# Entry
Amino acid sequence: DSGVTQTPKHLITATGQRVTLRCSPRSGDLSVYWYQQSLDQGLQFLIQYYNGEERAKGNILERFSAQQFPDLHSELNLSSLELGDSALYFCASSSQKGANTGELFFGEGSRLTVL
Amino acid sequence: AQRVTQPEKLLSVFKGAPVELKCNYSYSGSPELFWYVQYSRQRLQLLLRHISRESIKGFTADLNKGETSFHLKKPFAQEEDSAMYYCALSSASGTYKYIFGTGTRLKVLA
# Structure
């Protein structure tokens, strides 16, 4: 499957812990986006990377960080977890050529539950 | 600041009735606007974008810069249209953010 893949699909952890969510973009896509979806909150934009560099930042908490590696996969690190961090975390990728951002291709998401 | 507003969380219509899902945006430049759809047990996927001005699955959306709106319309709803719909705005220059509204769940009743 050459689509966007996210691991793990489900993760249950305790408050105060740290987790890493992983995303592999579509083959050839240089841009990776991370979103958080909490109940009734829609998709909250967290951060975007383009070819290894941070390009845009949204409402990402200081306890969260991300990076994109030379092979273009990306990781979202969530630390000092709180109950309110429980959410579905989506990764999306796009080819983003030229001035148009274009279509985002989404992964299935990683569901994080903080107990 | 960039913002996308979808005022309706849930919209229920009968099969064959017209559908309009509202989307208003706030952005000072020239945005790209999109509608994404998520069917049950499927990934979020692009439905249509304002640049292409096309009709997908009978849906159309017109960008109204004066009213800063990008409402999604379909003249005759089908049961298979039942899904979660998200309006999105992208800025390919300047901020490069790609933001979504809170979504509207469309239920088409038989």
Q: What stands out?
A: Residues 30 and 51 of chain A are 5 Å apart (CA to CA).
